[in-house]
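[worker-b] picked up task from shared queue
[worker-b] task type: protein-ligand structure
[worker-b] ligand name resolved to flavin mononucleotide; SMILES cross-checked against name lookup, match
[worker-b] sequence length check passed
[worker-b] input payload:
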Amino acid sequence: MSLYSKAKIAYYSGTGGTAMAANYFQRYLLENGVEAAMEHIMDGRSVENTAQDLLILLFPVHAFHAPAAVYRWLNSLEQAPGTHAAVISVSGGGEVSPNTACRVSCIRGLEKKGYRVVYESMLIMPSNFAAKTKEPLATLLIQILPNKVKNAIDALLSGTVQRSSPRKADLILSYIGRIETYGAKIWGRFLKAESSCIGCGLCAKECPSGNITMKNHRPQFGGKCHMCMRCIYRCPVKAIAPGIAKFVVLKEGYDLTVPSQEEALISFQNKEEIEAGSLFAGVIDYLENK
Ligand SMILES: Cc1cc2nc3c(=O)[nH]c(=O)nc-3n(C[C@H](O)[C@H](O)[C@H](O)COP(=O)(O)O)c2cc1C
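[worker-b] inference finished, payload out:
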């Protein structure tokens, strides 16, 4: 008999990495006989306050904490005394400084609503911000994701309690990182659609902050941007570009296409030959620790 019968997976995702992880959580919960409903967190979408015995919250790490939309979602959540919760962060860099405190505010938010947070962990997906995750690391991260989620589900369903202690300095940096919320709003105001824009409106339809409106078949950018990068990477003609801090966008674009069978043969045997770069040292640890 499983510890849980009805779970909810609530997730925010900019460019699809966290959404991919959330889908695996749903799949493995269902395979274990646990009902698993999904809730996609988006500004302007009201919170679905449903009863469940396990809440799994997933979010991408933005500047060492969760995107502001996640905190707004937490504020609107109803009290659920004693309900178990798991908090899963998804980052490009892994459980290294200063990321180690990225779940603290969400955990506090859930505790304020009466939840008992029994599990927390970090997943890693290819980075969508400033520094690209080199190959073969990016492919390996996508390949290992199902395994990592399976391990988390096994731990949760067997009643394992997993909580971490963030480093003190990281707590401060995570707090400072909140400035990013304001920076994102300014950055978003400077986004522009270049002349190659075909006016398809996909960016406006998919923006998780409702920050893009179409006027005369051209996107207009407001002051509510989350800097999630979705509009930039998903634009079919790559017509959206930042006006400031251009370095945050990966020149090569961002794509999480699941590798083909041949590529799936990539292994992690020659670790020494993999050029990760110091920013991605945590990724190597994560891949080694299957
Ligand atoms: C604005 C922004 C800030 C980010 N900050 C961090 C960070 O502090 N640490 C980190 O490891 N990754 C950071 N990342 C990378 C993302 O956490 C990572 O690529 C994640 O997989 C994206 O998930 P998504 O595809 O669901 O949006 C950042 C990404 C963005 C867009």
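[worker-b] attaching auto-annotations
[worker-b] Residues 13-19, 60-64, 90-93, 99, 125, 127-129, 227-229 surround flavin mononucleotide (CB under 6 Å).
[worker-b] releasing lock
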